[in-house]
């Protein structure tokens, strides 16, 4: 069963909702309060590893060292080294030992509370204090809990929600309150507060932000940790890639997913991001020459496909990538099955996914997730602010403290210029996009600025893209010059092919077909195998069906780039 076979499900009053959670939903919407910082979250973090899993403790200690977490906040538990477990194993080997640790250390205190569920009232133990706001599960901790059909709970739930299956992460998120029913989801007060705010002590009495550092192999977990820290220190940069499906029919329930994608596009444009947006029903083709992707959101196939899994590496350092599918996290220990494991293996530092069927509306709302990230929240905060329910199917894979946009763009750019950071050009491009949005007549000033700072390959490419989106006929000479300069600076096959194809399209749009043919042929000569794979032959075939203009064209110049190591750029 997957999202393509069932409509999205919107939970109604039949969903179980802790009475205390309902109270905080109301209060959070009414009150503004000072919240946590990343440092606050770090001080209230617990790392949990599996004593029986190879490298689990080593990875836990590696993360603790990098994030300066004291030894007393590391907990080893004795649980199976397997991804799927039953409900009894979860309670005996995972939630039980973790809960016992919280009580033994004095980190959590609870009191009896009456909980109304429909016409029934049950007694639960609700936290009055909780010092653990974040739990990090290390590779080796089981991933998902099977449905136990022997558990019978008479609850007012729609049939689709009548399961007690869940991700381990999402189940542990409800740990502050003991005794709630196991069947169906719990509404997430942090989502329903309705606005962006830091997670704090009041929230922690109701739920815990649970994420995991997990991957197909242990070495990839270390890379996730290291690259998150690196990107956080410099601000995450690169392309944003949004792969929508072109759904706009309001009567189609799946249009909700595309609406999230389009909302994300608006947010990214507002922030000045260079964006690759695909609105076709199919996935982005595997032969797309896109590289340096920092943010990715797309849907919808069962197993990983597309350019991200083809060499060379396509993701920026610290990239966050998400693909919407019902079983995207059915396993995290495969480099080819489903999506989360392959995305991490391909170079992403963080992702999210579902372990069993979630229904569309109960998956992370991608537009909220990216909006919160870009506002400067941590990965865990952004993820949980985008997720309607807990005790359900989602797992958050990545460093929960990862804050990729800790530095706002103006400050990051100022620091990058002073420190000569390697991502300075990307920051310059974002700022240029914003400047151009505010004043489209600023193109000559931007070019003068880029020449003064010695702009590099990505910045000239981005400048050409910016002008191409604005008006090709008005800026054709500037666009061609920018792409030529960019191609002169690039040295890798995939980047030169990407720019060459863009340049050929500009030549075609400006009635310079011979120049378009010349650049494509030169790419095939210089990079025959790569150019054929990335569609240059198809571009040539398509161009040959276009009649030549009546005016004899000028010959393609052949001196812009040394032939010894670059294709010639007409």
Set out the fold topology.
Elements: H1 19-30, H2 38-43, E1 45-50, H3 56-67, E2 74-77, E3 84-85, H4 87-104, E4 108-117, E5 120-130, E6 134-138, E7 144-145, E8 166-167, H5 168-172, E9 186-187, H6 189-192, H7 201-204, E10 209-213, H8 218-234, E11 239-243, H9 255-270, E12 275-278, E13 293-298, E14 315-323, H10 340-345, E15 351-354, H11 366-375, H12 379-385, E16 389-390, E17 394-397, H13 409-419, H14 424-438, H15 443-453, H16 457-470, H17 472-489, H18 493-509, H19 513-526, H20 528-533, H21 536-543
Parallel strand pairs: 1-2, 1-6, 3-7, 6-10, 11-12, 11-13, 13-14
Antiparallel strand pairs: 4-5, 7-8, 9-16, 15-17
**Content of β-strand:** 5-15%
Uncertain runs with pLDDT below 50, 5 residues or more? 1-35, 551-570
The overall pLDDT average reads 89
Number of structural domains:
3
What strand order characterises the main sheet?
2-1-6-10
Main beta sheet: strand number and arrangement?
4 strands, parallel
The first-to-last residue Cα distance is 52 Å
| Helix share, percent | 40-55%
How many strands appear in the DSSP assignment? 17
Basic shape: elongated
Our Rg estimate from Cα atoms comes to: 26 Å
Structural class by secondary-structure content: alpha/beta
* Number of alpha- plus pi-helical segments: 21
Commentary on this structure:
With 570 residues, this protein is α/β, with parallel strands linked by helices. The chain has 3 domains: 19-162 and 169-237 and 318-397, no CATH class; 407-489; 503-570, no CATH class. The chain contains 21 helices and 17 strands. The strands form 6 sheets. Strands 2-1-6-10 form a 4-stranded parallel β-sheet, with helices on both faces. Strands 12-11-13-14 form a 4-stranded parallel β-sheet. A 3-stranded mixed β-sheet has the order 3-7-8. α9 links the parallel β11 (239-243) and β12 (275-278). α11 (366-375) runs antiparallel to α12 and α18 (493-509) packs antiparallel against α19. The longest helix has 18 residues, at 87-104. It is elongated and about 80 Å long. The chain starts with 18 loop residues before the first helix and ends in a 27-residue tail after the last helix. The model is unreliable at 1-35 and 551-570 (pLDDT under 50).
């Amino acid at each position: 069963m997957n999202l393509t076979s069932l409509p999205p499900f919107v939970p109604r009053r039949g969903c179980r909702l802790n009475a205390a959670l309902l109270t905080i939903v109301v209060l959070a919407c009414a009150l503004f309060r000072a919240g946590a910082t990343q440092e606050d979250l770090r001080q209230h973090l617990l790392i949990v590893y599996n004593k029986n899993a190879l490298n689990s403790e080593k990875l836990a200690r590696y993360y603790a060292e990098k994030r300066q977490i004291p030894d007393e906040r590391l907990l080893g538990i004795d649980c199976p080294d397997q991804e799927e477990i039953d409900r009894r194993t979860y309670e005996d080997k995972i939630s039980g030992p973790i809960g016992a640790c919280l009580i033994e250390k004095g980190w959590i205190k609870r009191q009896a509370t009456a909980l109304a569920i429909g016409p029934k009232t049950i007694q639960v133990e609700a936290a009055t204090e909780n010092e653990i706001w974040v739990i990090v599960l290390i590779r080796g901790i089981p991933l998902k809990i099977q449905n136990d059909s022997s558990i019978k709970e008479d609850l007012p739930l729609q049939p689709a929600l009548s399961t007690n299956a869940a991700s381990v992460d999402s189940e542990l998120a409800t740990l502050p309150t003991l005794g709630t029913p196991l069947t169906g989801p719990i509404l997430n007060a942090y989502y329903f507060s309705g606005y962006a705010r830091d997670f704090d002590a009041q929230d922690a009495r109701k739920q815990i932000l649970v994420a995991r550092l997990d991957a197909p192999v242990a070495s990839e977990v270390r890379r996730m940790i290291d690259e998150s820290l690196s990107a956080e220190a410099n601000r995450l940069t690169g392309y944003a890639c949004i792969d929508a499906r072109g759904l706009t029919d309001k009567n189609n329930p799946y249009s909700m997913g595309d609406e999230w994608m389009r909302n994300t596009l608006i947010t990214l444009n507002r922030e000045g991001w260079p964006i690759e947006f695909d609105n076709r029903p199919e996935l982005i083709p595997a032969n797309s020459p896109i590289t340096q992707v920092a943010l990715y959101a797309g849907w919808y196939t069962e197993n990983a496909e597309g350019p991200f899994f083809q060499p060379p590496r396509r993701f920026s350092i610290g990239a966050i990538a998400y693909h919407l599918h019902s079983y995207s996290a059915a396993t995290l220990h495969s480099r080819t099955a489903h999506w989360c494991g392959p995305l991490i293996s391909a170079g992403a530092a963080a992702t999210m996914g579902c372990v069993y069927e979630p229904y569309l509306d109960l998956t992370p709302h991608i537009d909220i997730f990216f909006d919160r990230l870009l506002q400067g929240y941590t990965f865990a905060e952004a993820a949980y602010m985008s997720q309607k329910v807990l005790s359900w199917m989602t797992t958050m894979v990545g460093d929960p403290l990862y804050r990729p946009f800790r530095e706002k763009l103006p400050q990051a750019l100022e620091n990058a210029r002073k420190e000569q950071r390697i991502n300075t050009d990307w920051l310059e491009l974002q700022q240029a996009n914003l400047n151009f949005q505010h004043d489209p007549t600023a193109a000559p000033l931007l070019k003068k600025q880029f020449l003064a700072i010695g702009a590099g390959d990505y910045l000239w490419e981005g400048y050409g893209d910016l002008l191409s989106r604005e008006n090709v006929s008005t800026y054709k000479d500037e666009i061609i010059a920018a792409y030529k300069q960019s191609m002169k600076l690039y040295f890798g096959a995939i980047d030169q092919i990407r720019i060459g194809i863009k340049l050929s399209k500009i030549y075609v749009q400006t009635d310079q077909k011979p120049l378009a043919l010349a650049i494509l042929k030169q790419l095939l000569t210089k990079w025959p195998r790569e150019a054929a794979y990335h569609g240059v032959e198809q571009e040539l075939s398509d161009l040959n069906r276009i009649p030549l203009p009546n005016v004899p064209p000028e010959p393609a110049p052949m001196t812009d780039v040394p032939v010894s190591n670059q294709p010639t750029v007409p």
